[in-house]
Amino acid sequence: MSRKLVRPRQGRMLAGVCAGLAQRFGRSAGFVRLLFLLSLLLPGTQVIVYLVLWVLMPNEDRYAAPRY
């Protein structure tokens, strides 16, 4: 289980935010996506939080070894 909060290159559907959160907390990406979709039924700022995480979470490429 990865301890860094990053957006993985594999397993993305939109931006990789749900996949990154799932990887970080040891859950399946489908479960986190389902929770996000269910949360959209409630009033709140879920979409804004998703967009903010999209901007703030780095891509997994930043932590990969440089390829020469």
Question: What do these coordinates show?
Answer:
The chain has 68 residues and is mostly helical. It has 3 helices and no strands. The termini are far apart. The mean pLDDT is 87.
Q: What is the helical fraction, as a range of percent? A: 40-55%
Low-pLDDT residue intervals, each spanning 5 or more residues? none
Largest sheet: none
Helix-strand sequence: HHH
- Beta-strand residue fraction: under 5%
Overall pLDDT level: 87
Main structural class: mainly alpha
- Note the overall shape: elongated
Q: What is the number of strand segments?
A: 0
Radius of gyration: 13 Å
User: How many DSSP H or I helices?
Assistant: 3
Instruction: Give the terminus-to-terminus CA distance.
Output: 27 Å
Quick recap of the structure?
The protein has 68 residues and is mainly alpha-helical. It contains three helices and no strands.
List keywords for this structure.
mainly alpha
Topology overview:
Layout: H1 17-25, H2 29-39, H3 46-56
